[in-house]
Structures are given as structure tokens and as C-alpha cells.
Amino acid sequence: MLFYILMKWSRLRIRYVMPAAHLTLREEDVVRLTLEFLHSRDLHISQLSLERETGVINGQYSDDVLFLRQLILDGQWDDVLEFIQPLEALSDFDMRKFTYSILRHKYVELLCIKSEANVIAAGTNGSVDNAVEEVVKVLSDLEKVAPSKEEYSSLCLLLTLPRLTDHLQYKDWNPSNARVQCFREVHPLVEKFLPGDRKSADSAYPITSAKNDRLIQLIIKGILYESCVNYCQAKATGSKESEQVIFVCSFCFILIKNIENFSKLHQTKIIFAFYVET
Known about the structure:
Layout: H1 2-15, H2 27-40, H3 44-54, H4 63-73, H5 77-84, H6 95-121, H7 126-145, H8 149-158, H9 175-190, H10 214-237, H11 242-259, H12 266-277
Helix pairs in contact: 2-3, 4-9, 6-7, 6-9, 10-11
């Protein structure tokens, strides 16, 4: 039965010539897929290293937002506040919330520097005193913009810890992850006030961004496609490996169904059902 269908399909393919398709795959699109995967897994050290090495960023940001993002990723906290200062005059802009987020991340980094200074100094009080003085100053500024006394008190509590990583919330803390998280927090606050699309070097291929775990989706779809082809070949040749291929197909089918709306894969669903039920 399957052989007859394949022969009939082969005759149909001889009569019907599909129109030529033009597929363009740029290396920077592959980089964006990788960046989105790393970002969604909180692998920000690797993400930022890949960004620096390739010059590719997964996002459609304006030039002003890109500049702000770089200031945050470099830990230039005072420059960040100075850059955003003109937006304070706008009634719709929540300057208080923005300032609190920036100062909170600055404060946590200073606490990390202070704890390291305590270990390195080992008897010399100069660097430790300077670090403590800066921490106290930032903590004083935080008191003015903190959303609640409870939240401010929780920040003060961090000052009593020998090391920042002793706190459960900051057990796996590192500057790269924290700075990416900081930009993620403040970007919605400034996005509509810093508009403008970044221009692509090639006008024929506008800048795009990967999202929704696109890399994993493509890998699973590729495995499903290969498994369906292998199953068809196994059935045509009477191979005993067809049962194993069915398992792989079923597994990939379940993964795809959980990843995205399967209505977008209607054609794939039909092909899969044909191979399994025949």
C-alpha cells in the first residue's frame, strides 16, 4: 500500500514543478538565535562575550537605547542617571522608579566590592573605608526613592552580611547577570521615550530579533523532519528500525505541541499522521 502511494506521489511530482524558492540565511541571524537561547537560560556571561566578539545584538533597539544599554552593561551608573536626566521633565516618565532600580544595582555591586576589599585588604583600612563610604552614600540616596520602608530595610540588611553571596537571593549573583537584569527592568520605563529604529547596513535585510525559544523550535522541527524521512525509508525497505523511528517522531511531536501553537504546523501534523498511521 505504502509503495503504491509513493509511486503515485512520484508520478505527480514529475508532472508538477514547484516554483523556485530563494532562501537567505545570514550568519548574524544564527548568532541572534544563539543569543536568545543564552539570554533565556540566564547565561549572560557567554551572551555578552558573544555580543562583543560578533558585534551582533538580539533586539530592535534605537541608538539611544543601545547607548543606555551599553552604559548599564559597563556599570557606568552615574553616567546612566545623567543620560536619562532630561526625561525627568516629562510627566509620564517614572524617574523615581528608574533611579531606584539603577541605584539598587549600584549598591549591590558596591557591597560585592566591599566584601572583596575586606578579604584583600587584610589589615589595611584605606580601600575598605573608601568602599564603605561609597556604600553608605548610595544607601542614603536609595532611602529617598525606595518604594517602601520594608524594601529599604531589606537593602540595609545586606550591609550586615560578611559576603553578599551569603544571602539566599544573591547566592549565584554575578555582575554580568545583574547588569542584564537591570537593563531588562528599566527598558520598559524608557522605551517609548527613546524611539527610533536602528538602520540595517543592508536595506534589503532589515534587523530582526529571535524570540520564543526559536533555536530549540528549529532543532526539534529538524529532528522531526529527519525522523519522518527515516520512517518512510524504513517502511519502504521493510527495516526493523521503523518502530524506533516512530518513537522519535512521537517524542518530537509532543515537544513541538508544547512549544508553540500547533495550528501553525498544520501541514507537518498531516504528514506525521500519514507516516504513523499507514
